[in-house]
Amino acid sequence: MPREGLIGPGDSSRTTGAVSVSSPPSVGMAAGKSSYATTPDLPTDQRNEDGGGLVFETEPFADLVEILGRPVLDLVLDVDRWS
């Protein structure tokens, strides 16, 4: 991801607002398989998947971060066209 895609300390401009992404329909196909009738399969190299999706990254944290409880992520999604 380009440097401008990083979320830095105190950078609230990247934590709200709309972000657009146009992913190819094949994103997610390299995730491996899991079925009751077969043995699980591990995902392949995920670099192609990462390049086709929307990824939020931060610099490494200086201190240990512990998340207690059940984390929740609220997203509002809007689709303007189907692939």
TrEMBL record:
Domain of life: Bacteria
GO molecular function: dipeptidyl-peptidase activity
Region of interest called Disordered, as start-end residue ranges on this chain: 1-54
Organism: Mycolicibacterium fallax (Mycobacterium fallax)
InterPro entries documented for this protein: Galactose-bd-like_sf (IPR008979), Xaa-Pro_dipept_C (IPR013736)
Designated name of the protein: Uncharacterized protein
Pfam annotation, one family: PepX_C
SUPFAM superfamilies per the UniProt record, alphabetical: Galactose-binding domain-like
